[in-house]
Design a protein that fits this description.
- With about 130 residues, the chain is an alpha+beta fold.
- It has a single domain, classed as 2,3-Dihydroxybiphenyl 1,2-Dioxygenase, domain 1 (Roll).
- Helices cover about 20% and strands about 35% of the residues.
- The protein has helices spanning about 15-30, 75-85, and strands spanning about 10-15, 35, 40-45, 45-55, 70, 90-95, 95, 100-105, 110-115, 120-125.
- A four-stranded mixed β-sheet has the order 1-4-3-2, with helices on one face. It has a four-stranded mixed β-sheet with strand order 5-10-9-8, with helices on one face. Strands 6-7 form a two-stranded antiparallel sheet.
- The chain is globular.
Length: about 130
């Protein structure tokens, strides 16, 4: 085992598990799997994205980190789904609309989304990743 930590799961808080599951299944293009504890898991190539309905425990969702970055093969298809779902980010990134699919100043071909609970994600064309 390596001493380098490996990220294996990220949790996003939501207030409507069925709505969040439908949104993320559509956006990511994968169905995921429901788990006990008001959560739904999406396996994103070895890192699990969990949407968890904290409202079932009486809490309000707190947005996750800004941003979660996903490398994808067909960024145009995901952008089209995000646009249809109405989740393209409304802000600017270095003077460019974040929801626009474009080449960023650091070379990534990407766009950003914000889900109804304030969680921020970025989708990047694999092969253009700034690592």
């Amino acid at each position: 085992m390596s001493d380098v930590p490996k990220l294996f799961r990220v949790t996003l808080e939501v207030a409507d598990l069925d709505m969040a599951t439908a949104l993320y299944a559509d956006l990511l293009g994968i169905q995921g799997q429901r788990h006990p504890g008001a959560r739904h898991y999406f396996d994103c190539d070895g890192v699990i994205l969990v949407v968890i309905d904290v409202s079932q425990g009486g809490l309000m969702p707190t947005p996750g980190p800004k941003s979660l970055y996903f490398a994808v093969d067909d960024v145009e298809a995901i952008h089209a789904r995000a646009e249809r779902l109405g989740v393209l980010a409304p802000y600017n990134v270095h003077g460019q609309p974040a929801g626009e699919l474009c080449e960023r100043p650091w070379g990534e071909h990407s766009f950003y989304v914000v889900d109804p609970w304030g969680n921020d994600l970025c989708f990047c064309a694999d092969g253009t990743l700034y690592t």
